[in-house]
Amino acid sequence: MAILLAQASDFRSARGASLPFASLDSAFGFTFDWAIPVGIARRAPSYTPAMTTLRAWVRAARPLAQGNIAPPIVFGAALACANEDRSLRLVMLALALAFGLLDHLLIVFTNDYADRDHDTDHRTFASGGSGVLQSGALKPPALRRAAWAMALALLALSTALAAFSFPWMLAAWLAACVLLVLYSLPPFAFSYRGGGELLQGLGVGVVLPLVGFYLQRGTLAIPTSDLIAGFLLAASGNIATALPDVQADRAADKRTLAVFIERRAAGMVASFLGATATVVFFARIASEETIGGIALGVAFIVFVGAGALGRRALAYVVMHGAATQLVWLGLAAHWLWS
Fold first, then answer.
1. Domains identified in the chain, total number
2. pTM surpassing 0.70?
3. How confident is the model at residue 179 (pLDDT cuts 50, 70, 90)?
């Protein structure tokens, strides 16, 4: 056996330059470090400055955060079609989602800028900042200008919609801006002082469903119980996504609920709020045997089950996030097809 291996080694040395691979092993799919095509060196991918900057802005935009924005808007738009002889107006839904996208970008750019002196390298797929300022990929003035640009673009869209029979869209723009200032910027910065959960509950669970509903029906006559449940659901999401950041938030003197009462207890609170929201929603549709009831039942079980994972922060965030999406989108399907 040793002789055969030695002969194979000599064969590679003598014939390597004429073989497509430096080893016969690589031809059969093995990926040992020495099985590299002749004349090809391993090297890290290179990016042009423009591509590097684009990648930085995509990171700063934090696309996954759109999962907090779009579902409540879709929920509100679908609710506007419930018990009405009307179909979903796709153009108006697209405009509502455009409002949500601009609001999303305004939020993440502003939050990153506001946290520039406190953010660390600690981040997960569901929490923490984008890290573009800490890595030097973008400069604080650029992020500040981008936030202002999103605020003005959101104002332009809201003004255009107000000019076309939707005057309350200017109030929606003002509410989005005021909530963001209260959440992120001094002298308020309630995300640091405590109470950020309530502000996210209002913004995500009340304002966004109202935007979706209003642009479909032209009124704000959304059932109060749905707004209460939406508030509870969105507030619970804020608590949940803060669980992985307890140590970093404590070091930054950020008084989230998870810092104040510890991670496991905060997880139980988030699960309780999420489960309570599902019960409030279910009370509205209990007499109807549809996909909405099934979705709420599954979400309730997931919320309760996630409560046992308060110390396993990322697993908890995944379960809580899945249950939250199931509530928003399951009810949207219910309103549209019941």
1. 1
2. yes
3. very high
